[in-house]
Amino acid sequence: MEKLSKQKLILVGLTLFSMFFGAGNLIFPPYLGALAGTSTWTAMTGFAVTAIGFPVLGVVAVARSGGLARLAGRVHPKFAFIFTLLIYLSIGPCLAIPRTASTSFEMAVVPFLKEGSSGAFIQFLYSAFFFAAAFAVSLKPDRLTDRLGKILTPCLLALIVVIFAGCMVHPAGSYGTPEKAYGSNPFVKGFLEGYLTMDTIAALNFGIIISLNVQAMGVKQEASVVRETIKAGFIAGGVLLLVYSALAHVGAVTGGTLGLGENGAQTLNQAVRFLYGNVGLVMLAAVFFIACLNTCIGLISCCSRYFSTIIPRVGYSAWAFLFAMVSLVVSNIGLNKILEVSVPVLNAIYPVAIVLILLSFAFRDGRRWKAVYVCSIGFTGTASVLLALEQAGFVFLNAGLSRLPLYNVGLGWMGPAFAGIAAGALAGIGGKRYGQEGSR
């Protein structure tokens, strides 16, 4: 039976971690800690479910089912195409890829700009350099383990350890009082904040790139590739848990004493200024640049590979160049604007991804339980889209949606999801009995 050596498996796991750990992964845990204060660890538990647990399960689900298209195809082929397309656009040039450049610019460049500098022009130049570097590395997706796992990721982890160690040895203060949302229901608030990392929907696509890297290391049998990909997913999840916990602690001790910034990037900025002064700013700039570049490379690679399969006339390299150029334009909108737009979009897509992943474990036989997939995804998708529209400003929807169970805590889609599973299960059981009676 083919398998990777421990060293190679760890390298692949670190590669997957580096693809996950980008802009949102850096800024959301510390901001969660700053806002949650003494409720940080309860909130982190909820955050870990959606930002670590579901992404790892997503890697496993896609690896076992043979790809996202096959998994989503259990609902319907047209749904598989539309859902996959929406996911790739979300983690691609519309949201996630541009966010890597805008976040790293805010942390790696803005703190060093002089007053009166043309920030917009400098951001454009930085974005051009950033996406040129990402494009160059992404041209060989099967070499990502060599370039990310061996070089960039160890540097990134070392820098994060230095920041965390500084907070342990010389903390800015103690955990503060939780903000309103975290004071009333910290677990649910953390659960919802985990959406913003985009890792669950990214996990549905990263599996294919990791599989390529496993194959490039000499594992050729399909079953062995799936098994090693799953192992890499669990390694990546373990590293994510350690890093998220460290960053949440940094944010909690910083926010409780130095005050709250507008986002997690500013929270980390306050922390390193307090700990290391200007040297800390350089250190943080390196952390953000490496983390965001890693994720950008991974996203360009998986998106380009997907679109080159549905429109093969436009090759992989051309798609990679196109995504880099479009992301260059979108990234110059600014970090806060991108975050503002991403929230309702993710609230519409994320619940569907979560339900699809869980169904792959609870109802593995897609043919037998097709009704479960159709009903649950249909109900969940309808509810999540309407809830996202309400959040985007369509307030007339409030009268009907507010009656949904768990609506007040931001989980209004769960009731329709369970109702869809129940309806589909009953239909599946009834159909099976009818088929058995008809065959007698």
From TrEMBL:
Task: Write one Gene Ontology MF term.
Answer: L-isoleucine transmembrane transporter activity
Q: Which Pfam families match?
A: Branch_AA_trans
Topology with respect to the bilayer: Multi-pass membrane protein
Keywords for this entry? Amino-acid transport, Cell membrane, Membrane, Transmembrane, Transmembrane helix, Transport
Signal peptide feature range:
none
Q: Where in the cell is it found?
A: Cell membrane
Using the UniProt record, give the first listed, main subcellular location: membrane
A single Gene Ontology CC term: plasma membrane
Instruction: State whether keyword Nuclease applies.
Output: no
**Which terms does the UniProt entry file under GO BP?**
isoleucine transport; L-leucine transport
Transmembrane residues, as ranges?
9-28, 40-63, 75-98, 118-139, 151-172, 192-212, 233-254, 274-302, 314-335, 341-359, 371-389, 409-430
Give the protein's function. Answer: Component of the transport system for branched-chain amino acids.
Q: Which family would the database say this protein is a member of?
A: Belongs to the branched chain amino acid transporter family.
Query: What's the protein here called?
Result: Branched-chain amino acid transport system carrier protein
Species annotation: Lacrimispora saccharolytica (strain ATCC 35040 / DSM 2544 / NRCC 2533 / WM1)
